[in-house]
Amino acid sequence: MRVAILGCGYVGLELGRRLAADHDVVGVRRSKDGVERIDAAGFSGVQADVTDADALEAVPDADAVVFAASSGGRGAEAAREVYVDGLTTAIDHFCGRADQPDRVVYTSSTGVYGDHGGDWVDESTPIEPTTPKTEVLAEAERIALERSAEYGAEGTVARYAGLYGPDRYRLSRYVDGPVTEGYLNMIHRDDAAGAVGYLLESDRARGEAMNVVDDEPVDKWAFADWLAEQCEEPEPQKRTIEDRLAAEDLSETVERRLRTSKRVSNERLRELGYEFEYPTFREGYRAAVDAYLGDGDREGE
User: Fold this and answer.
1) pLDDT higher than 60, residue 300
2) Which E.C. number(s) belong to this protein (predicted)?
């Protein structure tokens, strides 16, 4: 299988590394440094902007295109440029080739579900984005599924929960506190990459949106207390959402995000046969805790 990973960053590098042993993989990054990281991960890199159709000419034909580009944490307009305009450009470009892909995978976010008051959601739950950025992500999901189909390709949407893993454990946020109430839905980087790789190699979830989240959404306060215990630190200070809103001058978007609460089910992904390397945060944070206890590395790097 020939796979092109557009926006080959935190998850894409791991996905490419895993697939490269048995498949022809190319990663695409905008910067020279990004391409060097792809080369260091053991597969081919191409320097190109995923929003530029002319630049994408340098990318070889592929059987599957994985769109994993990031807007870099910027606002809704930057997100639209990457997720909507960039994804549309990529689908039109690759699916318009004589040798077109038959699969397009778009990496989205469980944020598109919006607020469900802490209740469980799954792929049958209607999406209700509550912020301008998650509205953009929802629009991009429709493009991935519908525009791909217009070309005869099949789209898959991988809805990632909160990513963590090497370089992104952020221990200090929870060990030091204060920790605001709510639920955490998480996925380790290795499972984020592993799940997409599994869906490609097993030829599953065509035409579907799929939650990519671990087995156990967890209360933030309970998670922080567990982490503090593991790191041999005192329990951090807690605060309610109302406490935080009263103490800080937050934007309307941040307030909406704080008030968004849900628990995301991975039952469908489990049904398709994916086996998690890190089924819960307990296994996933073990390396970070060991590093913290060993040399005081607060980020578990």
Assistant:
1) no
2) 1.1.1.290
Nearest Cα residue to 264 out of 162, 146, 171, 130: 162
**What would the pLDDT profile of 86-109 be if each residue is shown by its tens digit?**
999 999 999 999 999 999 999 999
Strand partners, 212: 160
Q: Where are the domains of the chain?
A: 2-167+186-212
Residues 115, 261 contacting (CB under 8 angstroms): yes
Q: What's the CATH fold of domain 2-167+186-212?
A: Rossmann fold (3.40.50)
DSSP letters for 39-58: HHHTSEEEE--TT-TTGGGG
Cα–Cα dist 185/272, whole Å: 20
